[in-house]
């Protein structure tokens, strides 16, 4: 196993400490071979299973101080925080920790038992599973775009990481197999060897991506909604800012078509974009495509030792160290408005907490559909819903398998689309597979590997079923996917399984509070790049959004950037950073207008 030595071992979360806490979370409620822990009903009235026992406390995973008995001024017992963050996904945690590091007093309220949301973890029978995918961008020791590393450092945390020598192994129709090597030159040489007639086009398209990545990487990243910073960057780096402004409304597919003619190679570019955006290249903003297509070679993909869940735990611990608070089992049902301004939140159990600002890490559909009670949806949100719809959810299969089933030198991440390019964006059409134990063997008992298999799936496919039919359908669908993997990659896979848990879009909705299980917005049609994507401020004074329904969209590094931007804008509004109210009005008005023409 290669070890990247740039960071010392984390003081807070080795795989050992992860495993020493008993079963703190339960992403998918169904246990192996029909073993179940009872049901609590809830939104999955059809019986997906249950959360872990209520006696399992957040403190088992994070040293969170208790915030008991309501802290609201409504109850006359609590303080007014600078900011309340609803939700502890990476977006919410980065916003919270950045603010705490600037000296603000923050309260993070998380519905679930542990932090992390879709970047959380759960443990079963000695296996530590990542809830979401295990491909981590922005986790290197280089440049300005290593936002995960920087977010941890802001609260005095570091994690040991293992570099992945290959980002992803594509297994595509017509036996096209492409390995995305960490070394850019090796990847380009491999791609050119498959498409020698497109050598120039390949170099030009990926070269264009580097132009954008280098511009991004040269900037100090803060809020694009804060004029003093934005105009300052234009003065310091005019060429880079103009480059970004030029590409902001463009998509990767159009640019690829300028340089590349071979339809099969264009299909490959679609697959490159699809794995990070769940849409094809024509619908993927060029800035986002460049970010991921280059960071994987610049900083590389690096896996945190002990699992992805360690990132959220470290951020939550860091937040507490900075004198702020995180409270679990805190289900926010309302944002409290006074004279049109957000001043606090109410929980399902009736407790109220008050603050100068409220930041929602819930999806925009939930923030404006459930948490904020206004008669009419603000124009900005109508505009957002005009341009974007909910991206599909996933069916995920977490498995523990005997190590002997994997050939030696198996890569960590695979993307499989067997025989028909037309199936790329169709539910269950393609298969994502991560085997994080290839990089960190401590995640599984000796002699075993973890396989996390996922494929796009829509909640509609899982509605209206009885408990029995729902469970049976999960088994049937999972079985088909496993058979496909058996015939494409790993003969004998089924008989090597020692643990299996299947999650559906309903599981994602229930345990991660994702609206319809979605992983963020996707454009309804061909978008104008990132131009229509809302930033962090909202139409409601004092209310901000953070996470994947904000600029720049889905992905851990993307939501980390949204957290950095949000914290900067909120800090300026709270007086922790410089601001100019006149320039604010002008810039926010201009950005709003850009969104309406997107
Ligand atoms: N490797 C990867 O790239 C990878 C892996 C996992 C996840 N992801 C990405 O992470 C992104 C999501 O991050 P995010 O930060 O936007 O959101 P998130 O879904 O991870 O976190 C939101 C959090 O808010 C909580 N929450 C929601 N409503 C609440 C309420 N009313 N009260 C209290 N808590 C509430 C949820 O329980 C959850 O913990 C996804 O887009 C996904 O692509 C990426
Ligand atoms: C304001 C205006 C108007 C103008 C101005 C100009 C300028 C200055 C601009 C600027 C801009 C900027 C800064 C921007 C930024 C951006 C960014 C940072 C972005 C980022 C992005 C990212 C992303 C999108 C990411 C994503 C990722 C993901 C999603 C991932 C995923 C993964 C997976 C799923 C994996 C797969 C797996 C397998 C295959 C197994």
UniProtKB/TrEMBL annotation:
UniProt keyword annotation of Transit peptide present: yes
Q: Where is the composition biased (Polar residues)?
A: 13-28
Any single biological process term in GO: carotenoid biosynthetic process
Assigned keywords, A-Z: Carotenoid biosynthesis, Chloroplast, FAD, Flavoprotein, Isomerase, Membrane, NAD, NADP, Plastid, Transit peptide
| Functional pathway | Carotenoid biosynthesis; lycopene biosynthesis
Query: In this protein, which residues make up the domain named Amine oxidase?
Result: 90-570
Report the locations given in the UniProt record. Plastid, Chloroplast membrane
Do the record's keywords include Methyltransferase?
A: no
Reaction catalysis annotation: 7,7',9,9'-tetra-cis-lycopene = all-trans-lycopene
Q: What is its EC number?
A: 5.2.1.13
Q: Which residues cross the membrane?
A: none
UniProt cofactor(s):
FAD; NADP(+); NAD(+)
Output a single Gene Ontology CC term carried by this record: chloroplast membrane
Q: Where is there biased composition of kind Gly residues?
A: 39-48
Region annotated Disordered sits at 1-74
Per the record, the major location class is plastid
Among InterPro entries, the record links this protein to: Amino_oxidase, CrtISO, CrtISO-like, FAD/NAD-bd_sf
Q: How does the record classify its membrane topology? A: Peripheral membrane protein
Low complexity: bias regions: 49-67
UniProt-recorded Gene Ontology molecular function terms: carotenoid isomerase activity; oxidoreductase activity
Q: Hey, which family's this protein in?
A: Belongs to the carotenoid/retinoid oxidoreductase family. CrtISO subfamily.
Any idea what this protein is called? Answer: prolycopene isomerase
Give the classification, highest ranks.
Answer: Eukaryota, Viridiplantae, Streptophyta, Embryophyta, Tracheophyta
């Amino acid at each position: 196993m290669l070890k990247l030595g740039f960071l010392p071992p984390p003081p807070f979360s080795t795989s050992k400490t992860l495993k020493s806490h008993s079963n703190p979370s339960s992403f998918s409620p169904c246990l192996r071979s029909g073993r179940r822990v009872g049901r609590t009903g809830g939104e999955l009235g059809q019986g997906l299973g249950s959360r872990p026992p209520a006696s399992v406390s957040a403190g088992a995973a994070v040293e969170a101080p208790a915030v008991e008995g309501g802290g609201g001024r409504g109850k006359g017992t609590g303080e007014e925080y600078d900011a309340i963050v609803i939700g502890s996904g990476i977006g919410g945690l980065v916003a919270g920790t950045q603010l705490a590091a600037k000296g603000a007093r923050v309260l993070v309220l998380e519905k679930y038992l542990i932090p992390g949301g879709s970047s959380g973890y759960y443990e079963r029978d000695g296996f530590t599973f990542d809830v979401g995918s295990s491909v981590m961008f922005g986790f290197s020791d280089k440049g300005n775009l290593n936002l995960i590393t920087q977010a941890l450092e802001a609260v005095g945390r570091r994690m040991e990481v293992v570099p992945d020598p290959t980002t992803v192994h594509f297994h595509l129709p017509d036996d096209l197999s492409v390995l995305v090597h960490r070394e850019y030159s090796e990847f380009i040489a491999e791609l050119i060897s498959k498409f020698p007639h497109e050598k120039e086009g390949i170099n030009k398209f990926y070269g264009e991506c580097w132009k954008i990545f280098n511009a991004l990487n040269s900037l100090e990243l803060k809020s694009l909604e804060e004029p003093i910073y934005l105009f300052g960057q234009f003065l310091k780096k005019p060429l880079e800012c103009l480059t970004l402004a030029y590409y902001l409304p463009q998509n990767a597919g159009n640019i690829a078509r300028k340089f590349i003619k071979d339809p099969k190679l264009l299909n490959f570019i679609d697959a490159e974009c699809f794995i990070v955006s769940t849409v094809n290249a024509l619908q993927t903003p060029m800035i986002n495509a460049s970010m991921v297509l280059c960071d994987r070679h610049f900083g590389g993909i690096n896996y945190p030792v002990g699992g992805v869940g360690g990132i959220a735990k470290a951020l939550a611990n860091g937040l507490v160290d900075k004198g702020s608070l995180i409270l679990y089992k805190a289900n926010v049902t309302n944002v409290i408005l006074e004279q049109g301004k957000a001043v606090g939140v109410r929980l399902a159990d009736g407790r109220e907490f008050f603050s100068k600002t409220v930041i929602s890490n819930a999806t925009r559909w939930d923030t404006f559909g459930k948490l904020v009670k206004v008669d009419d949806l603000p124009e900005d949100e109508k505009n957002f819903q005009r341009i974007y719809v909910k991206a599909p959810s996933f069916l995920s299969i977490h498995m523990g398998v005997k190590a002997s089933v994997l050939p030696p030198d198996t890569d960590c991440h695979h993307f499989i689309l067997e025989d028909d390019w037309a199936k790329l964006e169709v539910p269950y059409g393609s298969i994502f597979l991560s085997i994080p134990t290839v990089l960190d063997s401590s995640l599984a008992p000796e002699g075993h590997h973890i396989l996390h298999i996922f494929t796009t799936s829509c909640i509609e496919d899982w509605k209206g079923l009885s408990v029995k039919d729902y469970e049976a359908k999960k088994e049937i669908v999972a079985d088909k996917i496993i058979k496909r993997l058996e015939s494409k990659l790993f003969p004998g896979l089924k008989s090597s399984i020692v643990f299996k848990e299947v999650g559906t879009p309903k599981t994602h909705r229930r345990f991660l509070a994702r609206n319809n299980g979605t992983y963020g917005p996707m454009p309804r049609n061909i978008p104008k790049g990132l131009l229509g994507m809302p930033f962090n401020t909202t139409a409601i004074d004092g209310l901000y959004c953070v996470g994947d329904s904000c600029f720049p969209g889905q992905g851990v590094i993307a939501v980390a950037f949204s957290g950095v931007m949000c914290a900067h804008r909120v800090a300026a509004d709270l007086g922790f950073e410089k601001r100019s109210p006149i320039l604010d009005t002008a810039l926010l008005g201009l950005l709003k207008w850009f969104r309406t023409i997107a």
